[in-house]
């Protein structure tokens, strides 16, 4: 009866990017994660790393998800290295 799907991922901008339904330029991706430039950058280097799997809310994450978070951070760092960013004060 509810008007919303269980996952709510159809309206999720990150899932739309993951499914190539937007103009967002995907800078890096693998089977699990993707990295793209923020639509409204608030720093010269403002990138987002998201998992392909829809996550409703960071509060639903558990201890098991820590390695995923670490891989997300690693991808974020590798995009900075790829862009030869050394000034980490202008990074988000
Ligand atoms: Zn999503």
UniProtKB/TrEMBL annotation:
Alphabetically ordered keywords of this record: Hydrolase, Nucleotide-binding
GO molecular-function terms, A-Z: hydrolase activity; nucleotide binding
PROSITE patterns given in the database record: HIT_2 (PS51084)
Annotated HIT domain residues: 13-92
PANTHER family according to UniProt: ADENOSINE 5'-MONOPHOSPHORAMIDASE HINT3, APRATAXIN-RELATED
Record-stated family: Belongs to the HINT family.
Protein name: Adenosine 5'-monophosphoramidase HINT3
């Amino acid at each position: 009866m509810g008007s919303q799907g269980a996952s709510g991922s159809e309206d999720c901008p990150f899932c739309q990017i993951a499914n190539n339904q937007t103009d967002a330029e995907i800078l890096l991706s693998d089977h699990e994660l993707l990295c793209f430039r923020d639509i409204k950058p608030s720093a010269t280097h403002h990138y987002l790393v998201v998992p392909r799997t829809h996550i409703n809310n960071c509060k639903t994450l558990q201890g098991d998800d820590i390695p995923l978070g670490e891989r997300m951070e690693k991808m974020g760092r590798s995009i900075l290295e790829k862009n030869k960013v050394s000034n980490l004060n202008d990074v988000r």
